Amino acid sequence: MKEQDMFTVHIDGREYHYPSGTAYESIAADRQTDYENDILLVSRDGKLQELHKRLDRSCSLTLLTAKDKPGFQTYERSVILLFLKAVYDVAGTERLRRVVVEHSVSHALFIRVEGDITPDENLLALVEERMRALVNARLPITKRDMDTEDAVAFFREHSMPDKAGALRYRLGSQVNVYELDGFIDYFYGYMVPNTRYLKCFGLLPAGPDGLYLRLPAQQDPTTLGEFSPAAKVEQEQYAATMLIEKLGIASVGALNDWITRDRSSELILAQEAMMEKKIGDIAQEIARRSSVRFVMIAGPSSSGKTTFSHRLSTQLRACGLVPHAIATDNYFLNRDQTPKDENGQYDFECLEAMDVEGFNSDMLRLLSGETVELPRYNFKTGQREYNGDTLTLGENDILVIEGIHCLNDRFSHALPADKKYRVYISCLTTLNIDDHNRIPSTDARLLRRMTRDARTRGYSASATIGMWPSVRRGEEAHIFPYQDSADVVFNSALVYETSLLRPYIEPLLYGVERNDPAYAEARRLLKFLSYFLPVPADVVPLSSIAREFIGGSCYNV
C-alpha cells in the first residue's frame, strides 16, 4: 500500500496508522478492550461521526460510549427505532394509527399508542421478544440520503404527517433517513451501526394507551436505570400535552404552520392566557387554605421561578392576601462556613450550605407575630448582611419563598405542615419535532439559561454549556427527589418559546470554536434550532416567563 494511502490517527494520546477508507467501527473494535462500555460514536477533531463513516484524513479521535452524553443520546435514539420496528412488526400497520414518543421519566420514555390495540403486558412481552430477536440478528441500521420533497411525500403516504410537516420547512434538498429491516424513519441525530449494540432496555405498561420504554442509566449503560416516576409531574406533563394537541400543535411542523399563517400572536396570547389561568387557580387554592402562611417554591434551573413568584404574588393580592417575597439564597452560610465538594470547590447547592436553623427560627418568629430583621446575602463578600430590612406578618400576610431546597422538609423542618403550600415548577416540554423525535425538557432549560446568561452575566454559550453538567448533578441530588411532594406542579413551558429564543441563541452558538469542548453540543443545538421558524418578541407580554430570559420583563428579573 502506498504511504499516502495511510493516515495517522491519535487516540487517547497514542498514535496509530490506518489505511484510507477504514470504517470508524473497525478502529473502535481495535480499541474496545480499553473501554468498559461499547463504543457507539466517535468525535473526529471535535465533530461527531457515526461508526459507519470511513477514515479520509489524519485526525484525532475521541471514542464515545453511552457514558458520554452524545453516546447516550445515540443509544436512546437507536433503541426508539428498534422499538418502533418491533411494535409495527407485532401489532401491524393496519392496527396502529400513531406511536408518539412523549417525554422522559425516571430512566425511561413514556410512549403513547393510538390505534386498535392496548399496550398491555401480553402485547409488550411480544414486542420486547421481537426487539431481542432483532438485536440477536445483528441487523444493520443503514443511513441514506433522500430528496427532501420525496421524503415529505413518503411520510405522508405512510401516515406520518408530523414528519412530513417538519421536513417541509427544511432548507436542504436532501435529508437523512434510517432503515432497519425495511422500516424507514427520520431521526434528528446519530445512530449506532447495527442492532447488536442495543442490549439494555425493557418495556412496562402505562395505562390504557401508553407504555414505558426503560433505558439504562448513563452512569452504568449495562444496567436498567432505577424506575421511580414522579406521578404528579407526569400527570401535569400528560395533561399539558393533551391541551396543546387540542390547539392542533403536536409537532414543530404544526407550530411553523401557525407562524407562516401569521397566527403567532394569537398563539402567544392564548398560551399566556392559559398560564395566567393556571397561576390564578393556584392562588385561589392557597387562599382557600386559610391556614397557609408559607408558599414554598422550588424547581430546576431556568424554570422561571422568579417570574412565577411575582405573578403568583399578583394573583394572591387579587385574592385578598398580602404576599412578601423571601429568597432562600439570603440564608446561605458565610463563605468560610460553606462546605466544599470533592473537587475542593464551594458547594452552594447542598443543604449544608444553608443556615437551616436560622431560616426556621426567623420564620417561626414571623409566624408568632414578631418583627424580624431579614438578612441579605452579599455574594461578592460571601457574608450575610443585616441592613434594617424588617418584616411583621399581619392577618392576611403570606410569605412566598423561593429556593432549590423549598420542597425538602429538612430545610423547613420546624414549620407546621398545614402552614406550608408547596409548588414544584419546571419547564415540561409538550412540543416535539415529530412523533418519534422528542424535545427533552433539559434542552429547553439549557436554551433559556444560555439566553439569560449572555444577557445578564455576559457568559458565552461555551461557558453555559460547560457548567450545565454540574447544574444537572445538583438538580438530581437536591431538587428532583422532592418534586412529587409538592401540592401542585406548575409547567412553565411555552409552546412558542424555542421559536422566540432562536434569534437570541444562534449567534452565541455559532461563536463556539471547533477546538472548544462545547463544540459538538453547540452544533447539535444549532441543528435543533433550525427546525423552528422564528417569531418576534413584540407581542410577548412584559409579565411573560419568557421575559425572564430574553429581557424586557416588567419584574425585576
Structure description:
By secondary structure, the protein is an alpha+beta fold. It has helices spanning 24-31, 69-91, 121-136, 148-157, 161-167, 231-246, 252-260, 264-288, 305-318, 356-367, 441-456, 461-478, 497-510, 519-529, 547-550, and strands at 6-11, 14-19, 39-44, 47-49, 59-65, 96-104, 108-115, 141-147, 174-180, 183-185, 202-205, 210-214, 216-217, 220-224, 294-298, 322-327, 372-373, 376-378, 383-385, 390-391, 397-402, 420-426, 488-491. It is globular, with a radius of gyration of 25 Å. The protein starts with 5 loop residues before the first strand and ends in a 7-residue tail after the last helix.
List its traits.
single chain, 557 residues, five-stranded mixed beta sheet, 21% strand, globular
Brief description of this entry?
The chain has 557 residues and is an alpha+beta fold. It has helices spanning 24-31, 69-91, 121-136, 148-157, 161-167, 231-246, 252-260, 264-288, 305-318, 356-367, 441-456, 461-478, 497-510, 519-529, 547-550, and strands spanning 6-11, 14-19, 39-44, 47-49, 59-65, 96-104, 108-115, 141-147, 174-180, 183-185, 202-205, 210-214, 216-217, 220-224, 294-298, 322-327, 372-373, 376-378, 383-385, 390-391, 397-402, 420-426, 488-491.
